[in-house]
Design goal:
It is a single chain. The chain has 165 residues and is of the alpha/beta class. Helices cover 21% and strands 21% of the residues. It is built from five helices and eight strands, in the order E-E-H-E-H-E-E-H-E-H-E-E-H. It has helices at residues 33-36, 50-56, 79-82, 107-117, 146-154; strands at residues 17-19, 23-25, 43-45, 65-69, 72-77, 100-101, 121-126, 129-135. Strand 4 and strand 5 (72-77) form a beta hairpin. Mean pLDDT is 86; it is low at 3-13 and 161-165.
Length: 165
């Protein structure tokens, strides 16, 4: 019998927000976005096309496409913006408005804004340079980290494995 989820999980933990693979912030001022961001997000170059964006989104774990020119962030594209568009430069899709934060921003305050707005991804930008990606877990209780992403990629779940016949 398949399991069913009863009710919706809370969007915010009672005690705090998890970041950095196990640390927890309980109030403003205890951590910055730099403490929680993914430092090696997948990036697309300025030469990328809308087809490249759609290819990136074939990975179930990718929810934002970051397009850069060298290190300068050009745009952040969400999946719905790439679904039905005609072939175009990726830099012409998406927006930066409301999709960025700085590494020095307060993590707690950023988390509150993200949970209230329903936004799960923010590009981390310092002086125009893309330095990371802040990824709120689907539970809303914490942030993804580089180590967690590496572990998932090294040991995919059975549903993620593709078997050759």
């Amino acid at each position: 019998m398949p399991l069913t989820r009863i009710g919706k999980p809370p969007t915010r933990p009672i005690d705090g927000v998890e970041y950095g693979g196990g640390r927890v912030a309980y109030a403003p001022g205890e951590a910055t976005v730099a403490d929680a961001m993914v430092r090696r997000p997948k990036l697309l170059t300025a030469a990328a096309t809308s087809s490249d964006v759609r290819d990136l989104f074939r990975d179930d774990h990718v929810h934002a496409a970051l397009v850069v020119d060298d290190e300068r962030l050009l745009t952040v594209i969400e999946p719905h913006e790439a679904e039905a568009c005609e072939e175009a430069a990726a830099s012409a899709l998406g927006t930066l408005q409301g999709r960025t934060t700085s590494s020095a921003a307060d993590l707690w305050e950023t988390w509150v804004r993200m949970t209230e707005s329903g936004r799960r991804r923010l590009a981390v930008v310092d002086e125009g340079r893309c330095v990371g990606l802040l990824c709120l877990k689907s539970s809303g209780r914490g942030f993804c980290c580089d180590a967690g992403i590496q572990a998932r990629n090294a040991h995919p779940s059975p549903q993620e494995l593709i078997w050759d016949e």
